[in-house]
Amino acid sequence: MIIGKGSAETEAGVMPSRQLVDDMMAYNESLAKAGVLLAAEGLAPSSRAARIAYGPGKPKVIDGPFAETKEIIAGFWLIQVKSREEAVEWALRVPVPEGGEGVGLELWEVFDAADMPETSLTPETAERDKALRESLETNPPNA
After folding, report:
1. What pLDDT, in 10s, does the model give residues 9-39?
2. Averaged pLDDT of the chain
3. Residues with Cβ < 8 Å from 37, sequence gap 6 or more?
4. Which of 134, 129, 124 is CA-nearest to residue 114?
């Protein structure tokens, strides 16, 4: 997963320029053409978000906005590639707005039940996970 970090501009709800939108579309199309794109989405400012904090007692819902923009993400790409190096290559191609100092990306490896050690997953749970993933492929949300 390539995670685009938030900034003061994204937190203020400033929309990207037409040129940056066009550049992002071209980037997304290149990911799709290469057959590695699974999802790509932008996120609303944290003023429209919530966090759930766990501690003693009931979970606590904390409404945004959140003060630390360095902890906020503005969007993401979910890609399926063969290696960390390939993911880095794709991330380095992400279009950055003019004067994009301070723009940052993070790369995170996504894993699923197949990546879990056998001691963490019963055969029944593995089968349930497989069935769930198959149902999502045949019946996508909001279809």
Report:
1. 888 888 888 999 999 999 999 999 999 999 9
2. 88
3. 28, 31, 77, 78, 79
4. 129
> Structure pTM?
0.81
Could you read off the pLDDT of 51-107 as tens digits, one per residue? 999 999 999 999 999 887 677 899 999 999 999 999 999 999 999 877 666 678 999
What kind and span of H or E run contains 41? strand 37-42
For residues 78 and 39, the answer to whether their CB atoms sit within 8 Å is yes
Residue 89's CB: how many other CB atoms inside 10 A? 11
Residue type, 34: A
Question: Counting Cβ atoms within 10 Å, is residue 71 exposed (0-12), middle (13-18) or buried (19+)?
Answer: exposed
Residue 143 in this model has a pLDDT that exceeds 60: no
Cα–Cα distance between 140 and 43 in angstroms, integer?
A: 20
Task: Count Cα atoms within 13 angstroms, Cβ side, for 83.
Answer: 3
Cα 119 from Cα 126, distance rounded (Å): 12
